[in-house]
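Task: sequence in, structure out. Protein: Cytosolic endo-beta-N-acetylglucosaminidase.
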Amino acid sequence: MTPRKRKRDETTSSKISKTEEISSETCLDQPGDQSIHEVVNDEPSTLPAVHYDPDTTEPISCSLKSLDELLSWKRNEASPFNVATVPLASRLPPLDRCPRRTLVSHDMMGGYLEDRFIQGAEQEMPYAFYHWEYIDIFNYFSHQMVTIPPVVWTNAAHKHGVLSIGTFITEWTDGAKICEAFLADEESYRAAADKLVQISYCYGFDGWLINIENVLSETAVKNTGPFLRYLTDQMHERVPGSVVIWYDSVLKNGSLNWQNELNDDNRMFFDACDGIFTNYNWTEQSLERMKSYSAAQGRFADIYVGVDVFARGKVIGGKFETNKALELIRKYELSTAIFAPGWVYECHEKADFRQNQDKFWSLLSEYLYIHRPSSSLPFISSFCQGFGKSLYWRGQVEMERSWFNLHAQEIQPLYLSENMEKGGWLKSRGCSEDAWIGGSSLMVEGVIPSGLPEVCARIFSLHVPLATKTFVSFVYKPPVGVKVSLELKTIDVPLCTFNGTEEIASTSVFPQALAEDNQLVEQFVQNCGRWTSDGWTSRCFLLKMIGCSLREVCIRLSRDEGDEDVSFNCRIGEIMFLDAESLHAPLQSVQGICVNDVVWQKVASNEHEHEHGHTMKVLLNATLRWQYSTQQVRHFRIHWRHLRGPDPRIRSGPLTVIGRSYSTLYRVVELEVPAAPGLIELVVEPVSREGFRVPEDRWGRRTLSYSSSGNP
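Result:
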């Protein structure tokens, strides 16, 4: 369960990993009713260091650094751990109907920091993005030639309906040589494009930013347009909904000369792909020219006007004045590309990160669309931002240590900041001091001013068709002197054909809490199991509505008595909307669990010789795979226990949690096991999205016996 500090150095290796196909065959070779046998040896890992940390064998995300690496890339050498498992969620408005889009280009300290550790890392205050409702496209940027987005980012983006795109970049003299090679002729540029398409398709992300920042020869620039057109067409065919965007750099004559706008000198590249990301030194006159430019007509949304948040060079806005740039860009009805918003993290105290990030996006919010998640039931969020000071499950600490894993990020709420008359105010923010599930909860705080009986905090804007009977669970810590209730806003289903950009009149619903002895509440509690409250309050509601969709979720806070100003802090732990019928639905069993890519390590014990005389610790590293519908789970808990050790008098041990997985794949890393010979059990426990307990007879189990080399 313990994530550790990781080394920053990333090494490369030409060793070939086992393919997913070979691993699947290995699974077929492991009948479920038989134990696997392994021999403990001192052989070094043969796993490729580009995909697995060379010291620990932890799975990591990585880039490709050369044209040779790109052209020699093979699907059967890809990392199965870096494949996105979260499909792109629906949202309103969808990308193709959003007239003014927002792209975020995440460039931070060279990239592939703690976010490269696919199963998470220990970090006290990491950088995480969580204002997904404002943006359309997330670009992972680095100066390595083929920047493949770490899977943690793609899954987090997809969960919120945001596209995740990588970066293909060439720079300086070396970049010019690369371009001369892959843009030499049609066969060469098609070969490079085909690999980019295959990589995007394999890893499950949604396109590319193409950034050529070096001079091109006459031949190379002549082939750049056809390369872009071919890449874009192939991406659209293989990855529906994907985008290819060109960065404003090279001109049609091959010279490197940033234009800071779309014009005749770079139009040929814009015409060949899905959009252009302009350089940052534009003026209002640049925007005026683009607005009237003939090639831009009908494609204003495809012009992403670049804004450098670091405000390098002669730019408008940037830093906490980025809103000034957005105001002008939106005035001319253009899209925007916000470069390096991690400035709020890099250039300020890490302890103030949340505060500064919320301030930054609050200043921009006037110029950004709020996108609504559009999904069927269930709709569930415990507000986890993907990191925390501890890891919680139903209000109890599972792991008391700082952690970072964007796979754990749940659907994010609206983070609002609102001032009212007479000194009243209202704010919502993520808080890691306490949580219901994950690493953070939603803190709603403010002042109910004199003369106002209540305030209302909108925490979600969404589009979720309700069932005939919809069960609602709401977990919170009630503040002193303030009553907490829900206000839900709904619309009729016939209005669901709108394109998502206009406002629609809604109806407010104020649900009344069900009694604890209500049959549905009792069923819900039975499914979840009893829990220690520790200050948390759980309320359940039943909505009986026909032909309605949930539009907004609001928290109402009203004063208990009196008319003076009332301050409050209300911690929201979780909210769930479920089809009431699902409370009776059976949960499936884990199938086909198998173990492969086993690596043994023997390390000196820090302790004195114990009673059995062993001074070396035996560490197991192995990959677990299994079959289960990931749409039904929040995560999987991975357990282990020893069944039999070198001393037969020692009884079997208890199940011990060693980690969480957010897919049907998990790498056991440096698990200390009893000295050989021994027999251990590895167990996979599914944790349902609703938090319902899955009976142990439906967990996945695999026993592994092992002996010393030379001993059967």
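The two ends are 32 Å apart (CA to CA).
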